[in-house]
Write a structure and sequence with these properties.
Elements lengths: L22 H14 L1 H24 L8 H26 L6 H10 L1 H15 L1 H15 L5 H9 L1 H10 L3 H7 L4 H12 L3 H32 L8 H10 L8 H38 L3 H5 L11
Helix pairs in contact: 1-13, 2-3, 2-4, 2-13, 3-4, 3-5, 3-9, 3-13, 6-7, 9-10, 11-12, 11-13
Length: 312
């Protein structure tokens, strides 16, 4: 008997462009792979959905606590990393015309989980924590009534630094999982791939990210607007709707049906959109390897021993 994941066997010969790609080709390939192998990705992102559900429940139970944001965010990290790793491995397998199932992708990710966590913590320590600390530093000045443009400048001083290294290290997860290297070499390899093409990579990453969030905002705001126009939003107006969708503020509504529908929609949409940007980054990783290293992937597919990309 076939298992549910067996229907996701990959066979995309002559459909993936194994050559350098522009943004249009990357965009087309993202949706082509996602559409043709939706069940494969659905099996993987179920983990992400469960993590989002746990995070939402924790967030609700910690209302009014000073740990309201901290605890749910920490709890969500393993779910996000496993889901992301699964999508990375599945996308690489599809792109290289390999057989893969949802369970296979997740198992391979779990075998490298501690490396993934190590990379994430290092990435966060260098890029995220300094910016957050500076924001907290700024807020402490504001609360004490001390304000000046010099103080305001503090968090933004870290912004160029964070953006630069976020792009330079943008492929550490792909390198770690697909080249089976260690944490140190993952950062080194990502830097090598981006070197000399930083602005192009930055532009493509921004476009992929904007595409993902635009889909989310358009669907959520459109659905919420229908309820508001129908006077069924429990007093929520357009401003509050946009703040909820874009800034993730609480959705103040007296209508429990509206609140429940919008919350469920948010969880489902974020889950379904999650693979889009991950697939896009994997495709960009392959594009950089083709452009910079000049290898012929089709030859390497036929000679697994010669490959530095390892999809089991």
């Amino acid at each position: 008997m076939l298992s549910p994941t067996d229907v996701t066997q990959t066979n995309i010969s002559n459909t993936s462009p194994l050559q350098p790609m522009g943004f249009g080709e990357i965009l087309d390939t993202i949706f082509s792979l996602y559409r043709k192998h939706f069940l494969l990705f659905l099996g993987i992102i179920t983990v992400y959905f469960l993590g989002s559900l746990v995070t939402y429940l924790l967030d609700g139970s910690l209302q009014g606590s000073n740990r309201k944001d901290l605890v749910p965010n920490f709890v969500s990290i393993p779910f996000v990393l496993v889901s992301m790793g699964g999508v990375i491995i599945a996308t690489a397998a599809i792109f290289l015309d390999r057989h893969i199932t949802s369970s296979d992708a997740l198992k391979q990710t779990l075998r490298r989980f501690w490396y993934l966590l190590g990379i994430y913590l290092l990435w966060a320590a260098v890029l995220i924590i300094p910016f957050i600390v500076s924001l907290l530093f700024l807020s402490s000045f504001v609360r004490r009534g001390i304000f000046s443009f010099r103080v305001l400048f503090i968090p933004f001083a870290f912004l160029p630094f964070s953006i630069y290294f976020a792009v330079r290290w943008g492929f550490v997860f792909e390198v770690l999982l697909l080249e089976k290297t260690n944490v140190k070499n993952a950062f080194k390899r990502s830097s090598e791939l981006v070197r000399g093409t930083w602005w192009r990579v930055f532009g493509l990453l921004v476009l992929i990210l904007l595409l993902s969030v635009a889909i989310l905002y358009i669907f959520e705001i459109s659905l919420g607007s229908i309820f508001i126009l129908a006077k069924a939003a429990g007093g929520t107006d357009f401003k509050e709707l946009i703040q909820w969708s874009v800034m993730e503020e609480d959705l103040g509504s007296s209508n429990l049906i509206f609140y429940g529908i919008m919350t469920c929609t948010d969880l489902i949409l974020k889950t379904l959109i999650f693979p889009i940007w991950v697939i896009g980054i994997v495709l960009l990783y392959f594009d950089l390897r083709i452009r910079k290293e000049g290898f012929d992937i089709e030859i390497q597919v036929n000679s697994p021993d010669a490959m530095s990309i390892q999809v089991e």
